[in-house]
């Protein structure tokens, strides 16, 4: 989508600190980090959110989480990290391109607000 900021980052049309990219997935640091490590892992293909995924996306969704695990190791936060997917405005979703937040590097309270 031409006006989607994450699509633009995936296509290198907008700047971002990209940590990983392959044919399916891109990962980059969050612009407004909520923890010492805050990385977004996104599908390269535009999917607005969890409400739009289907069985055909099973492998892609799995890959987002496998990449998140690899980045957690690379960032040395394996002692404790959190993976978050906000879906819908009431859950705090502000960018409508599916993304997994990888948060770590500090103690994380539960439940999230
Ligand atoms: P969410 O609230 O779950 O939709 O998370 C969106 C996240 O995206 C939020 O933590 C801030 C981040 N973000 C928004 N715009 C940009 C951007 O242009 N670049 C980067 N790197 N992150 C962004």
Structure description:
This protein is of the alpha+beta class and 113 residues long. The protein has one domain (5-104): HIT family, subunit A. Helix content is 20%, strand content 22%. It has helices at 5-10, 58-74, and strands spanning 18-21, 25-29, 37-43, 81-84, 100-104. Strands 1-2-3-5-4 form a five-stranded antiparallel sheet, with helices on one face. The protein is globular and about 35 Å long. It starts with a helix and ends in a 9-residue tail after the last strand. The model has no long low-confidence stretch (mean pLDDT 97).
Distance, first to last CA: 31 Å
Low-confidence stretches: none
Radius of gyration: 13 Å
- List ligands, each type once: 2'-deoxyguanosine-5'-monophosphate
**Major β-sheet strand ordering:** 1-2-3-5-4
Can you tell me the number of structural domains?
Answer: 1
Global structural class? alpha+beta
- State the helix count: 2
Helix content: 10-25%
Number of strands: 5
Please state the overall shape, judged from the principal axes of the Cα atoms: globular
Largest pleated sheet: 5 strands, antiparallel
**Helix-strand pattern:** HEEEHEE
Beta percentage is 15-25%
Question: CATH topology, what is it called?
Answer: HIT family, subunit A
| Assembly level | single chain
CATH superfamily: HIT-like
Mean pLDDT: 97
Q: What is the CATH class name?
A: Alpha Beta
